[in-house]
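Most newcomers find our protein records easier to grasp once they have seen one. A learned vocabulary of local backbone shapes supplies the integers on the structure line. Here is such a record, shown just as it appears in the course material:
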Amino acid sequence: MARLLGFLAVALSAALLVPATAQDKKDGDKREPGKTDKDKTDKKKEDPKPKPEPKLEYGQVLSGKLRAVRERTLEIAEVDKKKLYDLQNELSKLPILQRQQRLQKADVYADKGKEYRTADSLRIRSSSPPIEYDDKGFAKQNTAKRERLPNGKWVYLAEFDSLRAGQLVTVYLAKTKTPPKKDKKGLKLDDEDEIRNRPEILMIVITAEPPKGQ
């Protein structure tokens, strides 16, 4: 009888200990090895989520050729109507096979563009993803971030260093009132005044690279 009571006592003690042990193991599985709750809290503080860019509030949209890239201004040339007219006449006289070759070398944009100041938070995008190469010279898999433009097209994030003369671009200008052509005294504004009165470029999208040889 004494042995039976002793056996029951041991069995009862084991039954009470099993749930606690299982719960401890379950709690332990939730934690990564070697990491505490404090480590997780510190990691959240160190890696905050980047804030999304504010909505682009733009006015006029221009398409043209980038003639020059300067520190605070970009020179944008729009289509020269006379050049375009002359090119159309020239193409009409060429055989079909030669038209494509002529179009590849054609430049219907003004030789001198207008300078526009760039906004402090200038956004630079490209219609093509940037090409990166590994140590062996092979192209890496594209992992560039992209976003959708107001017109619905997808573009890729780019850097200021990717801008160069000869590229075809689309620029989004800030909303602004029509700039005056004369100052308060009635004197005609000089070039610097005109540049200051022009709207800033909020975003520039590279739509095509210059042909080889240009």
